[in-house]
Design brief:
about 450 residues, mainly alpha, Receptor-associated Protein, three-stranded antiparallel β-sheet, about 65% helix
Length: about 450
């Protein structure tokens, strides 16, 4: 796709310069207009480079006759900018699912991705070319793996290659939908918008998971507190029996620590088994190899599944609308938009649909029968195709899905808070039973046994 260098004025009256990919100059001007830019000059980089390359000139033969001046075509004026013209970016139109080379790194964090892509969006909106923007972000990275990823992305962009391919080689740092969104921005010419969307999505996901982290630690406290409470009460009862057998002559603390150690040693195999099971299940659940199955299972959970579906559908419709405004056919747009969906299972499903359809298939026909889309979505897309304004309909569907996604998110937080209350209530009831039922009940049984022994022995 041709690449153009532009100089424009933003809404604040500031001069911005940069590059953009489009089918022609008119399309590039229209795309810049959607960003709020008023274009001053726009130049085809390839055409400019060809014009600036001097053609070999033939030397005239010496003769005694008067020579006529050689007429040469005048070179049209070329707009100048401060950026060095990069080579045209060759972008792969297929949303590659698995890069050929993957870098093994520590897991990335949504909080870090939020800050990094927020900075990237700011640089791109200021008109800084992608190569320099990636380099600026790399300079602000504190982790070496993040710094390496953005430095390589900067190098790829400077060489005219898609930086999204580089980001896809770091699956531990960037979830699959992040390179998919960047790929859509590269092909459609809306990199600042997708960088900002990635930043917002990571921020919302981080805030959403904070509630589950609280629930997780409350649950861990509950699981640890139960065996520790049982061990402590059992140690106390052992101490009571030892003191009774010794006639109360043992040291209280020494006898209790000895009994506690015996109880802990007796329960140690069960504690080790619980710890091993916990970390094994956690590692299996969070493993990258199990990511597809995990995303599929999450869709079946009543509230969390609906939130994940609405989030992915909102992204799908938004990318389809932007790609449609860029002039890409439905098949290519659906391939790119599917790779940008956060839920990997839904991404694979819509990617398979994009592979089955032909170039002449309309978007409404391609999406017809999808269980992830509400039934009223297809008629709205069909209306957009009839009126010639599919992008507007898709943007409205994206906003509707996002509203549903936020509603499900609020419902999930409320239900999680209820579960936290239930767990704490059960734990409080367990503590009451542990003291008054287990410990005092054991002491009472010991006292009753002593009374029976005294009565039977004729002591009374």
């Amino acid at each position: 796709m041709p690449q153009f260098r532009y100089q424009a004025t933003d809404a604040a009256g500031r001069t911005v310069e940069g590059q953009i990919q489009a089918t022609d100059a008119a399309e590039a001007t229209r795309m810049l207009g959607t960003r709020g830019y008023q274009v001053r000059t726009i130049t085809d980089i390839q055409l400019q480079q060809r014009m600036q390359t001097p053609a070999p000139q033939a030397q005239p033969r010496p003769n005694t006759q008067q020579q006529q001046p050689i007429q040469r075509p005048a070179t049209p004026p070329v707009s100048r900018t401060t950026h060095e013209a990069p080579r045209p970016m060759s972008v792969n139109t297929l949303p590659g699912r698995a890069p050929s080379t993957e870098k093994k790194t520590k897991p990335g964090s949504e909080k870090t991705n939020f800050f990094l892509f927020s900075q990237l969006a700011s640089f791109l909106r200021a008109g800084i070319n992608p190569a320099q923007a990636y380099g600026n972000v790399a300079n602000h990275c504190t982790r070496a793996d993040y710094r390496e990823a953005f430095q390589r992305a900067s190098q790829a962009a400077s060489e005219g290659m898609p930086a999204s391919t580089v980001l896809a080689e770091y699956p531990d740092l960037f979830l699959p939908h992040i390179p998919g969104l960047m790929r859509a921005g590269e092909q459609g010419g809306f990199l600042p918008e997708v960088a900002e969307a990635i930043s917002r999505q990571n921020k919302e996901s981080y805030q959403y998971k904070l509630v589950f982290k609280v629930l997780h630690w409350v649950w861990i406290f509950f699981l640890i507190g139960i065996p520790l409470g049982l061990v402590t009460v059992d140690g106390g009862l052992r101490t009571w029996d030892a003191q009774t057998a010794a006639g109360g002559e043992l040291s209280g603390m020494g006898a209790f620590m000895t009994a506690l150690k015996e109880s802990f040693v007796a329960a140690l195999p069960y504690l080790i088994l619980c710890v091993v099971l916990y970390f094994s299940i956690r590692a299996l659940w969070a493993s990258r190899k199990n990511r597809m199955r995990r995303h599929q299972w999450l869709l079946k959970i009543p509230v969390i599944g609906k939130r994940a579906t609405h989030e992915s559908v909102a992204v799908l419709c938004w990318i389809l609308g932007l790609m449609g405004k860029s002039g890409l056919p439905p098949k290519s747009s659906l391939e790119v938009a599917a790779s940008a969906m956060p839920n990997l299972y839904l991404s694979e499903q819509f990617g398979a649909v994009a592979e089955r359809i032909s170039e002449s298939t309309t978007l409404s026909q391609a999406l017809h029968g999808s269980h992830a889309l509400p039934p009223e979505f297809i008629p709205m897309i069909t209306t957009g195709e009839v009126t010639g304004d599919v992008a507007t309909q898709l943007f409205q569907l994206s906003e509707a899905s996002r509203a549903q996604y936020k509603a499900e998110e609020a419902g999930t937080k409320w239900r999680t808070g209820c579960w936290i209350f239930v767990i704490l209530f059960v734990f409080f009831g367990f503590c009451v039973w542990l003291v008054y039922g287990k410990f005092y009940g054991g002491v009472k049984q010991s006292l009753d046994k002593e009374v029976d022994q005294v009565t039977t022995g004729g002591g009374i």
